[in-house]
From TrEMBL:
Note describing how the cofactor binds: Binds 2 Zn(2+) ions per subunit.
GO molecular function: 5-methyltetrahydropteroyltriglutamate-homocysteine S-methyltransferase activity; zinc ion binding
Binding residue positions for 5-methyltetrahydropteroyltri-L-glutamate: 19, 126, 574
Organism for this UniProt entry: Ogataea philodendri
HAMAP family given in the database record: Meth_synth
GO BP, one annotated term: methylation
Active site residues per record: 705
Cofactor names: Zn(2+)
Domain of life: Eukaryota
Protein name listed in UniProt: 5-methyltetrahydropteroyltriglutamate--homocysteine S-methyltransferase
Length: 765
């Protein structure tokens, strides 16, 4: 019997229980005990769900209160000193590293003021991990035994699990040196970290774990020589240790063949490969298996919501069986299911035909089980028939294909993707028109999404208030935000985005070709979850989407008001995309819809327009090469198609966040002004890279993921740092990103300090 396996299950709860309770804990409304109890409940539910679905290999330690990489940092004591000096309980150390902590002293506790560690994209997904941050003084040792505890917890429920750990090479390589140790290469710590890996693995084995899923996803990246060779060093050492469980080396999100030499002959009990993303690697990766090693065939998509095509998958798995034998093959999800929503059954509003095309995490459990059964010769014919019917219905549906969109797409040429004049000429007319001071200040768009906003949005959704009442409410929010910005003296204002639940979903809901869910949440980072809309067919814009709010906001002020749109690549990346047409086609369709919106904004008098592309970096193919250069080309083309229909004196902004951005990747967008998340970038070399960026730029000055308030002096110092390498006449002053997750109090204080610092330099220059 071929076994089925799941690499990880969403841990947020079917109804976002984890978020609600984590945030309640942060707000001091519930105690740690209650939060821990909720975590336990979620784990129990997830394990039982998988058991009941018939999954053979069920993961444990895939749960986390914040991020699984951060958990490992805590477990291995990779905790910079600044987090340990307050005598915080472990859970609070975890959250302080994840999101920063600022707290006044009480009778029994010290005052705390510490920024978060850097958070970056998990490969090309919209999940973010907290970057392990190493110094010369890092002393690896086990801090507790979370993986063992969770393994035993499942065992106590009568469920045998396979614990998951990020492997040593990936863990180190995904990290970075702390600011006090910039010369440190994390991978050089390999031999120092292996003893703690050994220790935790021994403990797992002692607790009864027979096998551990050891994730080495960095194998899908271009790896420097010393990292490639680290695999052999690491796994040879682990293989020599006494009393370890078997290790299944798990890769996902891409093709590992360029690094095949690094894992050939590794002493592990098996390998997992992602054949959804990279089916082409099959022959080569199978060729490295020794007679003993198992092959985990990742065939059920952990990154998207389309129903599996059983006939194709079964054929694929059969091919694997032929090569290595049924007893060695495992049918698996391509990656953790963390990236998919929990349960399609909770979608009550989806059109029945469309719903039948989807499969969420819970449904994917039965998919791996059914495929495993089918290739083992069990009779699953009714499941196969239903599946074939769903696949056919999607392919042939009118909802999928729109001839008018396809015709417009075929007419895109250079004239549609080039601004009328080059940047220097635009700059001259824009200077004259907007007359902004040196160090112009602005924000990235969203202002605090208060409880009041959420309540009113829900009321409107439920029909408890009328459209007029809702509009009135939104207008009052806009007015509040505009007045506030005038008071603190910001230069380019925004309307605050109170009408937007999410920057992609908001537009998705107004575009034809999209479907959206009511409960399809996916963790993006920490307690922030997103509900990606789903691109089901050709995309077009029936009517204006954002003009009303921006025009209203502009009517309230004489200062320039920035209209806010989400760019084509980000709309694509933060949606569940179609898998039947290319990403390029989907992106360009979106860009045409956005072009109409940009032009409508300009015509309505909103002539500073920001088109956010925070996801442009995450979409970058993981390896250098043709696919990557093609991507950069169509991504930039999409942005320009969206934004180049405007006059020279219309100022186009763009915004990027979440990851290490290469300035060369955004030059071709030709935006007049860009803002970039930057506050946690300490490496002067990185700042230097941006000094040649030709257009204007705002390097984000404070972390919006943290409630911490930087002082004016801190802003002054940071701006001063950047000014050492960065020219003052291109310098915009702004936060890292939008302020939607922040409260008003810290927003007011931080922005006031930021504007004061800008004024300080304005006088100085
Ligand atoms: C993740 S990028 C966010 C940009 C958006 N305009 C905002 O401020 O919320
Ligand atoms: Zn952002």
């Amino acid at each position: 019997m071929v076994e089925s396996s799941v690499l990880g299950f969403p841990r947020i709860g079917a109804f976002r229980e984890l978020k609600k309770n984590t945030e309640a804990y942060w707000a001091g409304k519930i105690g740690a005990d209650q939060l821990l109890a909720v975590g336990k409940e979620i784990r129990e539910k997830n394990w039982k769900l998988q058991k009941e679905a018939g999954v053979d290999i069920i993961p444990s330690n895939d749960f986390s209160y914040y991020d699984q990489v951060l958990d490992l940092s805590l477990l291995f004591n990779v905790i910079p000193d600044r987090y340990t000096k307050f005598d915080l309980p472990q859970l609070d150390v975890l959250f302080a590293m994840g999101r920063g902590l600022q707290r006044k002293a009480t009778e029994s506790t010290k005052a705390v003021d510490v920024t978060a560690l850097e958070m970056v994209k998990w490969f090309d997904s919209n999940y973010h991990y907290v970057r392990p941050t190493f110094s010369h003084s890092t002393e690896f040792k086990l801090n507790g035994q979370k993986p063992v505890d969770e393994y035993l917890e499942a065992k106590a429920l009568g469920i045998e699990t396979r614990p998951v750990l990020v492997g040593p090479v990936s863990y180190l390589y995904l990290g970075k040196p702390d600011k006090d140790s910039l010369d440190l290469k994390p991978i050089s710590l390999l031999e120092k970290i292996l003893p703690v890996y050994t220790e935790i693995l021994q403990k797992l084995a002692a607790a009864g774990a027979k096998e551990v899923q050891i994730d080495e996803p960095t194998l899908v990246l271009d790896l420097p020589e010393e990292v490639q060779s680290a695999f052999k060093t690491a796994y040879d050492i682990l293989a020599k240790a006494e009393g370890l469980p078997k290790l299944v080396l798990t890769t996902y999100f891409g093709d590992v063949t360029p690094n095949l030499a690094a894992i050939k002959n590794l002493p592990v009990s098996g390998f997992h490969f992602d054949f959804v993303r990279a089916p082409q690697q099959f022959d080569e990766v199978v060729s490295i298996l020794s007679g003993e090693q198992t092959l985990s065939v990742g065939i059920v998509d952990g990154r998207n919501i389309w129903k599996n095509d059983f006939s194709k998958s079964i054929a694929f798995v059969k091919k694997a069986i032929e090569k290595v034998g049924a007893e060695k093959v495992v049918v698996a999800t391509s990656s953790s299911l963390l990236h998919t929503p929990v349960d399609l059954e909770n979608e009550k509003k989806l059109d029945a035909e469309i719903k039948n095309w989807f499969s969420f995490a819970t449904q994917k459990l039965s998919e791996v089980v059914t495929i495993a059964k089918a290739v083992s010769g069990a009779d699953v014919s009714s499941a196969l028939e239903a599946n074939a019917a769903a696949v056919k219905s999607r392919k042939e549906s009118d909802l999928t294909n729109d001839a008018a969109v396809e015709a417009r797409l075929s007419k895109i040429d250079k004239s549609l993707s080039t601004r009328k004049s080059p940047f220097p000429e635009r700059l001259t007319v824009q200077k004259a028109k907007y007359n902004l001071p040196l160090f112009p200040t602005t924000t990235i768009g969203s202002f605090p999404q208060t409880k009041d906003i959420r309540i009113n949005r829900n009321k409107f959704a439920k029909g408890e208030i009328t459209a007029e009442q809702y509009e009135e409410f939104i207008n009052s929010e806009i007015e509040k935000v505009v007045r506030f910005q005038e008071e603190v003296g910001l230069d380019v204002l925004v309307h605050g985005e109170p009408e937007r639940n999410d920057m992609v979903q908001y537009f998705g809901e107004q575009l034809k070709g999209y479907a959206f869910t009511t409960n399809g949440w996916v963790q993006s980072y920490g307690s922030r979850y997103v509900r990606p809309p789903i691109i089901v067919g050709d995309v077009s814009r029936p009517k204006a989407m954002s003009v009303k709010e921006s025009v209203y906001a502009q009517s309230l002020t004489k200062k320039p008001l920035k209209g806010m749109l989400t760019g084509p690549v980000t709309c694509l990346r933060w949606s569940f995309p179609r898998d039947d047409v290319s990403q390029k086609v989907q992106s360009l369709q979106l860009s045409l819809a956005l072009r109409d919106e940009v032009n409508d904004l300009e015509a309505a008098g909103v002539t500073v327009i920001q088109v956010d592309e925070p996801a442009i970096r995450e979409g970058l193919p993981l390896r250098a090469g043709q696919e990557r250069s093609d991507y950069l080309e169509w991504a930039a083309e999409s942005f320009r198609v969206a934004t180049s229909g405007v006059r020279d004196d219309t100022q186009i902004h763009s915004h990027f966040c979440y990851s290490d951005l290469d300035p060369n990747h955004i030059k071709a967008l030709d935006a007049d002004v860009v803002s970039i998340e930057f506050s946690k970038k300490d490496d002067p070399k990185y700042i230097q890279e941006f000094s040649n960026y030709p257009n204007h730029i705002g390097l984000g000055l404070f972390d919006i993921h943290s409630p911490r308030i930087p002082s004016k002096e801190e802003f002054v110092a940071r701006i001063g740092e950047i000014l050492k390498v960065y020219p003052a006449d291109k310098f915009w002053v702004n936060p890292d990103c939008g302020l939607k997750t922040r409260g008003w109090e810290e927003t007011k204080a931080s922005l006031t300090n930021m504007v004061d610092a800008a004024k300080f330099y304005r006088e100085k220059y």
